[in-house]
User: Fold this.
Amino acid sequence: MVEVYKFGGSSLKNAEGIRNLRQIVADVDQCLVLVVSALGKTTNALEEVVQASFEPTNTWRQKLDSIQEFHEIIASDLLPEPDVFLDTILRPSFDALARKLEDPPAGSFDFVYDQVVSMGEIWSTLLIHHYLVATGLDFRFIDIREYLITDSNYREGRVAWDQSGFLIRKGFACTGKEKYITQGFIAGAENGYATTLGREGSDYTAAILAYILNAQQVTIWKDVPGVMNADPEDYPHPKKLVEIPYQEAIELAFFGAKVIHPKTIKPLYNKKIPLWVKSYKDASGEGTLIHEMEQAPKLIPVFVRKRNQVLISILPRDLSFVIDEGLGRIFNQIDTHKVKVNLIQNSAVSISLCVDRFDERVERLISELSMDFKVLHNTNVELITIRHYTDESIREMISGKTILIEQKTRSTVNYVIKTG
Assistant:
């Protein structure tokens, strides 16, 4: 029997968090695959390093030094003999990355992004593996880049399932009570370079491994007691959902619920592998069970708030019908620039898209669309979704807000609202 555990960066932001991980995994009495994210906010920090490496300054070095110092502080606090790990493993790895960044970027932004940002997961698993072994737990380190293979679609790698399945079943040979530690979020392309699976993709890694290894179940360890009906940062008194069906989890993830990556559910659903969401702060707590349910439960309203959105409105210059004249071209360009669309609304002569944050991809998309269409965009917007809405829940969420778009179905209502 195989069990998959995934720990995210919020649970690994200091030495205490890693000690807590050890306490949880030490009790597992069967084959365990431990999937680990980068420590704390390392991914965000490495994104800043990548951005700085494309600028005509050397600010990337200071940013990288800060990341290294953060890891060294945790290692010194955590390990019984930190100097061995620091001198022979961690510092040489940082030095190697620094040497690569000293040269002008070799390749596209997305390519460089994956080569740099993927190191966050490598450093975290090297450190945690060293600690687990030093404290008496027999874990084997697996570099997932050699086993989980994708195409060369950098920052959104598409899994080569047959090749990955063969390699993963060979590398994670669960015949008894073996223990493995590996990285989430990252993978390897057939050309030997690193790829990533999309932001916050560690959950997806856990689901891929569970699917290929026929795991008994997957547990995602979070800083909340389970799947809540609202983000505690946005809603003062959220309530925990005891159990939800796969379909509901997919809906919540698609609209931006932080607790689960959108791609996580499908591999688990295909083999009916249950997914638990539990709190690393209370390992004995019930958590939330996501599984196959013959009859979906009646759920309370669930609120999802997706910040840093961009509302793009596209209009033909001659007032022709947008569906007839340009819809195919518009969506081809969206696909080309890898822009994630969260909501679409169209009229006879316009189409509006709510997409994720204004970054270089969205900027390129707007620029290209502007060659053929009149394009307007708003950056200070949010997408608010209410599943299983009631009149009271709608009033509670949108009272006093400026609504730019409203969409309503039988079970879901979406609002694009202005925030500034």
Notes: The domain at 302-418 is CATH 3.30.2130.10 (VC0802-like). The chain is about 40% helix and 25% strand. The first helix runs from residue 15 to 25.
